[in-house]
Amino acid sequence: MAERFVFALECPECKRRNYHFFRGKKKEYKVELSKFCSQCRKHTAHKQTKAE
Ligand SMILES: [Zn+2]
Fold first, then answer.
1. What is the whole-number distance in angstroms between the Cα of residue 20 and the centre of ligand 1?
2. What dotted CATH number matches 5-50?
3. Is the distance from CB of 20 to CB of 29 less than 8 angstroms?
4. What percent of the chain has a predicted confidence (pLDDT) above 90?
5. In angstroms, what is the span from residue 2 Cα to ligand 1's centroid?
6. Distance, CA 26 to ligand 1 centroid (Å)?
7. Ligand 1 centre distance from Cα of residue 34 (Å)
């Protein structure tokens, strides 16, 4: 019964939140992934942000 929180991956160039995912609260480190941004039409280093 682990608690799960929703996070978003934000494009650093257009600040658009393109991806959402669930993860436990314990892992405090920030995720940074190269993801395709439909706004920029290229891969950028998306960073984890909180999604409410
Ligand atoms: Zn973008």
1. 15
2. 2.20.28.120
3. no
4. 58
5. 32
6. 28
7. 11
Domain boundaries, the chain: 5-50
The yes-or-no verdict on residue 32 having pLDDT over 80 is yes
What is the reported pTM? 0.76
Whole-number Å distance between alpha carbons of 40 and 27: 29
Q: How far is the CA of 9 from the centre of ligand 1 (A)?
A: 11
Cα separation of 47 and 38, whole Å? 15
Residues in the chain: 52
pLDDT averaged over the chain? Answer: 87
